Amino acid sequence: MDRQWWKESVVYQIYPRSFMDSNGDGIGDLQGIISRLDYLKTLGVDVVWLSPVYESPNDDNGYDISNYQAIMDEFGTIEDWEELLQGLHERGMKLIMDLVVNHSSDEHQWFVESRKSKDNPYRDYYIWRPGKDGREPNNWGSFFSGSAWEYDKNTDEYFLHLFSRKQPDLNWENPKVRQEVYDMMTWWLDKGIDGFRMDVINLISKEQQLLDAEGPEGQYQFGGKSFVNGPRIHEFLQEMNREVLSKYDVMTVGETVEVTPEDAALFVGKDRGELNMVFQFELMGIDSGPSGKWDVTPWTLADFKRVVSKWQTALQGNGWNSLYLNNHDQPRMVSRFGNDSSPELRNVSGKMLATLLHTLQGTPYIYQGEELGMTNVRFESIEDYKDIEILNMHKEYTAAGRDEKTIMESIYSKGRDNARTPMQWNSGPQAGFTTGTPWLPINPNYKEINADQAVADPNSIFHYYKRLIELRKQHDIIVYGDYQILREEDDQIYAYLRSLGEEKLLVVLNFFEAPAEFVLPDSIHFSGQELLISNYEIPAEHSLRHMNLRPYEARVYKLQ
Ligand code: TEU
Ligand code: CA
């Protein structure tokens, strides 16, 4: 068993803008986080992943960085950051920072220089190309609508931006860029951080001809073939590991869009010398239709189980999974995969989903508010939304003549602001998040759904998460056990075994509101059983051979 602290950890993601405001400007900040560290300690998480807090014009809420070694004014000072790091370490928690180096902000000094002239020493820090026939250099579309190229009149060339036009892609072919990144990483690591989450890290290597993507004339296309897991990606990551990461006891998780388990094994394989784990997007795509995330289609448990099982088995013994259903880019999981139609169903379905995430093989990631069962939001007007991805989509679809109601329904289902409404701390004004006006409106359900209520209620989702995290510490099998799905064809129940030596862990999850019967395969023998956790009261005398499961019922047994 290859024991590693990052395999045994539970990570909690903080989106600083929406976590806790300490100075009444309606924007979360570092001192706000510091004031909530005991809450995190009570929950029992081991690592905090802090979304970007660096200087940024906030075109993409901090994922557009203008100074990698300075703290955004709105969030506080580097002294506040040092205090946060110390506060976490004193409580036995670790801190990983967000590394956003596929692109910088266009207000970064490097880009300010680069756009000055074609022979500026920083020109090749970015990807500049002349236009073609009076148009962009190729037909690639941006993740945030429109072209992935922006014309810059001053030097009569275009620069590449896979995301917003204020997020120019860095040119990783340039060894000076790579060295700048490694020096910056070393600066943060020498301050004592415990690792990095790496933003779209598998996009940094582009094939150099920058060829058009296939697709009908006159439409922007996803150019993924030219930059997803590009030609030099493993060379770059192995160099980053050799030059920087290998010198520290750190945890790394790469955000890798479009990866398959086979690709992932090349990033996280034990002897690859690259990353510890990656965030895959396949599971996040099971409710997207052919034209992408806004083409909302119903997901099926068959698809859900197929994807999770594939990843569990593909990385078994050679790599490691990250386990998540929520983050700052995804809608709230209890609304998307659970049931938020009533407090009772939200409670049991939130606990069922948590049981899945904390009993699979891999490191679980909790996104702020997930432990409270926070839900999606429905703002009446597009004016209330702030996310650039939402606003650009709304503009593009409106211009294309789509009707407002359909557009808003897509935003209600999949918009990133679902995850970015401020943390709901209590039932007081502005949910205790701020004494001012929040940068994004609070979800109106904060009076029922908030941390004070959850911590006070032993039957809350919060205390269920706390118990799951404790179990992880008590039972190696939860971390290191092999995974084997049971009753794969069942379209309502997700059941699986984890095995480690003679021990077995049986997990049985009813994914829906309808009651369901589960019959344990005869092939599973055991002499003793211990119920470790369930989201319902289970009568002391009950059979494991045949279970009648209530709505969203989850059960975890240790079998001897
Ligand atoms: O996200 C990368 C990414 O692919 C997301 O844009 C995702 O595909 C999309 O939002 C799904 O709705 C990372 C960051 O997590 C995201 O917040 C940034 O906007 C993006 O990179 C650019 O830095
Ligand atoms: Ca503030």
From TrEMBL:
Q: Keywords on this record?
A: Cytoplasm, Glycosidase, Hydrolase
Q: Which family does the similarity line name?
A: Belongs to the glycosyl hydrolase 13 family.
Which InterPro entries does its entry note? GH, GH13_cat_dom, Glyco_hydro_b, Malt_amylase-like_C, O16G_dom_2
Where's it found, cell-wise?
Cytoplasm
**Any single GO BP term:** oligosaccharide catabolic process
Question: EC annotation?
Answer: 3.2.1.10
Query: Which residue range or ranges hold the Glycosyl hydrolase family 13 catalytic domain?
Result: 13-420
The reactions it catalyses are: Hydrolysis of (1->6)-alpha-D-glucosidic linkages in some oligosaccharides produced from starch and glycogen by alpha-amylase, and in isomaltose
Q: Under what name is this protein listed?
A: oligo-1,6-glucosidase
CDD domains with a match to the protein in the record? AmyAc_SI_OligoGlu_DGase
Any one GO molecular-function label of the UniProt entry = alpha-amylase activity
The residue range of the signal peptide is none
Q: Which domain of life is it from?
A: Bacteria
Which Pfam families does this entry report, sorted A to Z? Alpha-amylase, Malt_amylase_C
Listed GO CC annotations? cytoplasm
